[in-house]
Amino acid sequence: ETEAYVEEMRNNPDIQKTVEEDALDPDVWWQWFEQLPMDHGMYMSKRTVLEWLENYMTISKEERGRLSYNLLFISQETMETYGGYDKKLN
């Protein structure tokens, strides 16, 4: 069920458009996303990120700028500083 949901949402044109328009660096964001586990009860996962994106897309563009927490603000600097998701868990 989770894998089907992730695959469907990963290929959803609205998700792809939102990442393309709102992520600091869409390519880096997708690299980060692909490192996440499919589903995890204690840590961030592809499923929780996509669920967050579904909710994020319901917020007006004006309101999005006021969010204090935005998963689309993953940058190359963040990836280099923290070494990606896998290294944080090990």
Bin the strand percentage. under 5%
Mean model confidence by pLDDT: 84
Principal-axes geometry comes out as: globular
Number of helices: 7
Q: How many distinct beta strands?
A: 0
The biggest beta sheet reads: none
What is the N-to-C succession of helices and strands?
A: HHHHHHH
Radius of gyration: 13 Å
Secondary structure class reads mainly alpha
Distance between the termini: 27 Å
Runs in which pLDDT lies below 50 for 5 or more consecutive residues are: 86-90
The helix content is 55-70%
Structure description:
The chain is mostly helical and 90 residues long. 63% of the residues lie in helices and 0% in strands. The longest helix is centred in the middle third of the chain and has 11 residues. The C terminus is likely disordered.
Spell out the key features of this protein.
mainly alpha; disordered C terminus; 90 residues
Short recap of the structure:
The chain is mainly alpha-helical. It has helices spanning 2-10, 13-22, 26-35, 46-56, 61-64, 76-82, 84-89.
